[in-house]
Amino acid sequence: MKDFNSKLVLVTGSASGIGRATALRFSEEGADLILVDINEEGLEGAAREIESRGRKALWYKTDLSDAAQVEALHGRVTDDIGTPDVLMNAAGVVVVTCVEEAGLDDWRWILQTNLWGYIYMIHYFLPDMIRKRSGYVINVASGAGLFAVPYQAPYNTSKHAVVGLTESIRQEMERYGIGASVVCPGMIRTSMINTARVIGFKDSAQKMAGRAASPPEKMADAIIRGVRKNRAVIMYPPYINLLYGLKRFSPRTADLLSKGASRAFYRQHRMR
C-alpha cells in the first residue's frame, strides 16, 4: 500500500502517543481517519486537528479490553462509514516490576489491552478486509517484542505475542491481498511512560525513560515509510535494529549484556 490518499484508516490508541502521531501523518497523506481510544478528550482533540487539515475524522470511545465493546465498535464503524483500508492497533499499557512481584491483576491488565485488545480488533475487522480482498494491518508491538527488557515480564510477554500474531497474519493473508507490519519501537515519548504501573522501583526509572525517549512523530514517519515498503518489521530508533541484530547473530553476547543491564537497573532504581 503505497498511496494513502482517500484511504480509510482506523487507529486505536489514537488519543495520544504513537497512535495519535501516526493518525495525523496518515491525514497528511490524504487519508480519512477512524479514531478509537478510551480517552474521550484526547480523541476529540485529535479529531479536531485532523479536520482542520481538511480530512474526515470520526471518533469512538471504546475500552478495547472488552470484547463486547469492540464488537459494538465494529457494528457502528461499519454502519457509519464502512470497512477500513488500514487497521492500526496502537493502544498499550505497561507494568514495571520484578517478575515474582507481578500480581495476576497486573498480568490480566497488560494482556487484556496489549494482546486481547488487538485480537478482538482483528477478529471483528479482518473478515471485512478478506471480503474486500484488500487491506493492511499494522500492529504496534515494541523492541520488547524482539528481545526482553528487564523488569517488564508481562509487557515483554504481550509484545512477543503481538510479533508472532502479526507474522501469522502476514503469512496467511497474502492470498487475499492483505499486508501486515509489526512496529517495534524503542523508548518513545508517550503518555504510557507516565501512566505505567511501577511496583518496587523508584520513579527515577520513569524519569530516565522520559529523558531517553524519542518523539512519537519520528516513529510515525518510520511507520508510513515502512508500510509503503511493505516491511515485515518496522523498527525505530536505529538502536533497536542493532540490539535485535546482536541477539540474532551473537546470542551469548546479547545474553551477557542483558543480564548486566538487569543488574545495573536493579541497583540504581530498586526501592530499599
Describe this structure in words.
The protein has 272 residues and is of the alpha/beta class. The protein has one domain: Rossmann fold (3-Layer(aba) Sandwich). The strands form two sheets. Strands 3-2-1-4-6-7-9 form a seven-stranded parallel beta sheet, sandwiched between helices.
Compact summary:
This protein is of the alpha/beta class. It contains ten helices and nine strands. It is globular, with a radius of gyration of 18 Å.
Average predicted confidence as pLDDT: 93
The CATH homologous superfamily is called NAD(P)-binding Rossmann-like Domain
Strand portion, in percent? 15-25%
| Assembly state of the chains shown | single chain
Task: Name the helix and strand elements from N-terminus to C-terminus, one letter apiece.
Answer: EHEHEHEEHEHEHEHHEHH
Radius of gyration: 18 Å
- Main sheet overview: 7 strands, parallel
Alpha-carbon distance between the two ends? 52 Å
Number of strands: 9
Low-confidence stretches: none
Shape: globular
- Derived structural class: alpha/beta
Top CATH class: Alpha Beta
The CATH architecture designation is 3-Layer(aba) Sandwich
CATH fold annotation: Rossmann fold
Please give the count of helices: 10
The helix fraction, in percent, is 40-55%
Number of domains: 1
Spatial strand order of the main sheet = 3-2-1-4-6-7-9
